[in-house]
From TrEMBL:
Domain Mur ligase C-terminal as annotated: residue spans: 281-405
Originating organism: Candidatus Southlakia epibionticum
Keyword Cell cycle carried by entry: yes
Molecular functions per Gene Ontology: ligase activity
Protein name: Mur ligase domain-containing protein
Amino acid sequence: MNIYFSGIGGVGLGPLAEIARDAGHIVHGSDAQESLTTRELQERGIPVSTDQTGDYLMYCHRQQSIDWFVYTAGLPNDHPELLKARELGLHLAKRDELINYIIGEKRLNLIAIAGTHGKTTTTAMMVWVFRQLDIPVSFSIGATTSFAPAGHFDPNSRYFVYECDEFDYNFLHFEPDISIITSLDYDHPDTYPTEGDYRAAFERFLTQSKQTVMWLRDTFSGLQTPKNTWLLKDSEVMPLRLAGAHNRANATLIAKACEYLKLGQQHAVLAALSSFPGTSRRFEKLADNLYSDYGHHPVEIAATLQMARELSDRVVLVYQPHQNVRQHEIRDQYDGCMELAEEIYWLPTYLTREDPRLPILTPQELASNLTNRNAVHYAELNDELWQHIEAARRDGKLVLCMGAGTIDGWLREQLAKANTTEKFDNANDAPTA
């Protein structure tokens, strides 16, 4: 099958393009700009263009007729490529339909990782366990790892491990053999207008899963669970050698799922979990005393700060909120989530998929309810902030930078510049013959 991906550089479609390629399909696509993901896809021999006018799509279709046009949920209805695909009469699909097609075509058993927080790391943990146990596995993770690409199809696998996101109702298109629910907190107000809508979607997802493993505490808001739901108590968290209470909790869910699936002996599963190396953008160490994390919800912030405090008694948080419409929903939840930070540098909100009717909340407004608001500095992504970060690192403090917007890319650019400058200075200091 010949598949064209519009938005191929995204965290959802990028891994799926790799999976489709591994599964024997012809794959190409486009994205608005080059990125690490598009470059990695091109290195694998997958053609990628930044031309999204419809001309590149037409060119590919003339070379060999395209069967499926798969597009990201963020693509507007009047996007030139989507309009061209309709004009050509192509089969239009989002990622869930193609994943279901591959699962059915290859007769795979679906292991779905869902929940508000921790999906990516937990999905990567499950893949890590499979690989440590030498069990073939296909998977889609929302991040790259040191041990695996974001997406992969293994022709010898019986299982497909999938980060099953609730955004755009994606997870409701699947009927997993087993689901792991990492946590539940109201999120994605652009998809679910009320907390009741969000809870109802998860209730429906549970009924579609043959078996579910989750925490009893996540049923507190009245979530109705079917009989095939394995509810764990907080006292059942296993004492694994992993940093972060939330990581130990998510690893426990995996251990219970492996027990249900009869994947290896428990001691082997626990040994694999204890050696988990982590993923990119999830408390990722970029340099000494400098970490980057994708988290942007108060619950994620509190959990990641707790993990940071296991490594250092002095933690500085640099935080970039994500999406103004989301800030209107969660602004009252910030109160105590940053108490473990010695200092906080609060950046303007990264804007994406916004409701123009909502006023943009300022950093001062968002931080007004913090119990430790005296620790807050209002900052921008500029040289001044980088100097503060460097000074904190020199003082032996752990600097944690959190957000799903531009903060990670900016951070890596600053590090690259600093490393280049250091090499240049060292070269100038070198003795001459």
